[in-house]
Give the backbone structure.
Amino acid sequence: MHWGIAPHRIGAMILRYWYLLLSSWPRLLELVYWPALQIITWGFLQNYISQNAGFFAQAGGTLIGAVILWDILFRGQLGFSISFLEEMWARNLGNLMMSPLKPIEFLIALMVMSLIRLAIGVIPMTLLAMIFFDFNLLGFGLPLIAFFCNLIFTSWSLGIFVSGLVLRNGLGAESIVWTLMFGVMPLACIYYPVSVLPHWLQYVAWALPPTYVFEGMRALLMDHVFRADLMISALLINVVLFIASFAIFLALLKSARRHGSLIQSGE
Amino acid sequence: MISNDAASSGLPTTGPAGSSAIEVAHLVKLYKTTRAVDDVSFRIARGSITGLLGGNGAGKTTTIAMIMGLVLPTSGRIQVLGCSMPDQSADVLGRMNFESPYVDMPMRLTVRQNLTIFGRLYAVANLRERIEKLAADLDLGEFLDRANGKLSSGQKTRVALAKALINQPELLLLDEPTASLDPDTADWIRQHLETYRKTHGATILLASHNMLEVERLCDRVIIMKRGRIEDDGSPDNIMARYNRATLEEVFLDVARGRVQAGTS
């Protein structure tokens, strides 16, 4: 395999998805609609319980903070995977795989698109949280960069993995794209500390990078401490996850070629 | 297998290794227990137009897909423009292109946007001029800024051909290039392919069910049946061998196992 990466091919793919976004207002609306709905629902819930429970009054913002960070994780993966699915829905994968586009360039373009789609969804969400619920995400300061990087790396790893599954198994595996992240949700301890889990399950939770991020967020909001150790651990696991997911993607691509799936990219 | 007169046909079908655009040796593709392609070998000379004929399930599309690198062979060897496939695909994919009914261009994008994206993927120089040239050659001007999904099937085929020609490929692989086209448009496409081959010295390999098209366009015909090469030669030689006036009659004979070449 040749590893030389051509920016013009990555740019061509980003342009392809950009044209697609601009050609379809429902696609753009969908990017903003769900995150906005999420923040409004959870924001009001946070307001209600903080008025009625001393603990939450003290830990103001943990719920809204968790909702926004969860959305970065979830929307990051969806943004990646939906761009990939667009090729399957359009039956365009054969054209791409037969072109000089390399798998790594394709994946980089999908990563950039996940950032663009995420920005379109999360920026209005963050503004809503600031205006209506007095929660300023940027108030996290520099730790926000560490949170964001770790979450986006995890979302890309999962995005690469599920895209490989769809590539190999066709659109019959599409539901995994939408549901895989929800399997991570209870284990990543988004809304509660890891200590709540049964002892044996805590080992599983600590194998997931988002767990470190949400623990780190709670430490920052409640104890006003930035846990750099947690962020470094998350980053190390993310590196392993990312390499593993890329290797699995290549193996699934090879398997798709072996089974002729690329010329029958339907169900 | 009835006959293989590639070497004796007098066509530019064989030659020293390396002078061919495509060399396929003992190609086998197994899907579980089905032998989709069964020990297929051929060479295709540079600058020729070769037709791959056969009924449904004959192995034409699988053979072309393996040449393109979209499907991995179970065994055998493929060389395209001097490069081993799929190992050296990165060196050769930019010099070839294809059109197939098994893939579409993105429907929501306009024709111009689609051609721009593929032009960039293939690093086409002076892309704007190239798109204008293709639009003029293939009569796309009227709908260049219309979404691909809103075109008729004939217009879509012309757009797919424009995409296949965007990088001025040395090797063009076409799967049913005139399927679903009216006779006038189909004839027009054939003329364009012939002109392209002459002006660019390109090699064209096409799979088709349209016997008239093959008779008119191809220097050489490879007939496949149940994954194997059933016959191979120029259209005239094959028709003479089967004592038939048209390739369609030959095709029916082969498909129904009615005659042996040279025995009728």
Observations:
- The CA atoms of residues 12 and 107 of chain B lie 40 Å apart.
